[in-house]
Amino acid sequence: MTKLPVPNLNLKTTPLPFGGQSNTGQTLAINNRYFTKNGKPWFPTMGEFHFSRYPTQYWEESLQKMRAGGIQIVASYIFWIHHEEEKGKWDFTGQRNLGHFIKLCAKLNYPIFLRIGPWAHGECRNGGFPDWLQHDKTITLRSDDPTYLSYVRHLYQKIYEAAKGYLFKDGGPIIGLQIENEYGHCGGPSGGEGLTHMSTLKKIAVETGFEVPFYTATGWGGANVVDNEMLPVQGGYADAPWDRTLTQLPANPNYLLLPTLNDPLIGSDFGPSKETFTFRVENYPYLTAELGGGIQVTAHRRPIISANDTAAQALCKLATGANLLGYYMYHGGTNPEGKLSTLQESKASGGYTDVPTLSYDFQACIGEYGELHQSYKQLKRIHMFLQDFGDIIAPSVSFFPPNKVENADDTTNLRACVRHDNATNTGFVFVNNHQRHQTMPNHQNVNLSVELPNETINLPTMNIPSGFYGMFPYNIQLGDAFLKSTNAQLLCKLGQQYVFYCHEAPIFNYTGNPAPMIVLTQEEANNAWHFGNKLYITNGNLIEKDDGVQLTTCNTEETVTTYPHFRVGVDTVHEVHQSHSESAHKNTTTYTFSPVSYTGSFKQTHQNETYTEYEITLDRITPEGINDIFLTIDYTGDRAELYQDGKMIADWFTTGLPWRIGLRRFGYKSNFTLKIFPVTQETYFECTPPKGYTLNNIALEPQYATLI
Question: Most exposed among 2, 16, 220, 606, judged by the fewest C-beta atoms under 10 Å?
């Protein structure tokens, strides 16, 4: 029996001096425990997407993918060097067009958080500082140096020109700003002078015109957060490719269910993490802005982050009290072309690590070319729950058992805790049986009990398999029904029905009549999509567009099950054929696509001790009936670069994951040059270290699309 005691606490809720009202009467606010929207508890999710690292023509599609994944707020760095690489020559055109991106968010009614720097990091050259600024020895950067501040003011003014009229108070999407980044942790003094500088930066932003509901600052590792001026945001990553070691890192404590905020892995390339905070922790809710949605690889470290690594960590942060789940990165990208240099972080430019020149895939939920990775679907389960039940969990408080697991190397004892709201007597039991790089045991016949002041809730006896992570509601009002306990997890609400999923045979203990329910398997929950009043189950991928719901898949046949039942008309787009298998509650439609097959060939054209070169020739591709074509390059070597007409268009550091390149952004060209490089330095690989530098094979896979 695992006992989870919950004391009777009389928690004080104190409003914080943040928030605002739009010209349409919408309100946002925050207290020392959680956000509110229009006066009700709000649990938002936030995902990082760098507009300047992605082609403009696909921005809207990417935002639709983020929304379909349950992301409620878009966050984006604004890299100074992307916009003023040459002093006084500003560039807000093409994929650097911040104004267009903001207007697109406004069109989609998508809230946005701008991370305005001036220093950003983000594996960008000079942390985002232009070279002309970085190398001016007459200026003290990241300080109250008047000359530096004059340049910062000009940067903020340029950003504001793009944002003017689109702030929340104007009815626009911009609800918050992050000031600086990791200041006092990765550069700059912690406390004192550092706090003064952060106040100065916020003052300049406000004087420029940035009157927004929320201002945030990095909170971890001694970074500077000015009390009552900024909200501290935390982070957590599954690994640390920036770390200077060349071995597997110790077991990651981010998979423990403990009341800790600081992640010692973040910024470890700058030195040991400080364990102190510059703000009063108890005065603020636990908010995250940098939960790893994956990880960027470096020349010397090549970790592979699994979907479970990503999702289990997010669930652990939710379990331990987080009231904002913010991911860095949620959507990968590609560094833009620089005029004077490449724009990635590198040792040559003064950075601590070398990263790919172009690729910023980040192993993110949405990859560099827009593909949805498995972590997208694993996280989507959590996000769907938070969209419909976040107002219930946001006011709850985390409680930990006296025998809680405190050592990440402990693979024996079950990790569990509870979030409970004394005001409603409702709560959720959390279990995590996943630890990166560890094999966890199967726990059979587990009995979990929540010991409340006036009663004890016994969850149904259940099995917790290796790698499982989840949350189980208790004492929860579901419409007219009252659920005492269950071994199933809540996914979403569909009209008057409640959607659950369960990893074993579900058990529901109701008081009185049960709620109308749909119960899915865990696999079905991974493949679930919720748009409006309909739930879709499919192995394919869905987004909601202006003209309907779009299905994309790399299979020539895909089924879509829809709840509640409705009849689908015959679709004639691109020779898509439908057959129907109907029941009283759901409709299953099969979409069959006319198969498209493309092939390619390659030949070696050059080899020396530095690299091997190949010419790749593909069939001429006509994009009719397809959404994209993915070129998979199977090679052996340390890294590879792909060229078109003499210009490098893509690169990849070997990790053991497939290198897949979306060809639509390159106009489906047919001829490429590939260079493969051997390992030349000691490197930590999680896969088998590559020997040699040769191209093994190439493959082409079409992605089909249709409205359903």
Answer: 606
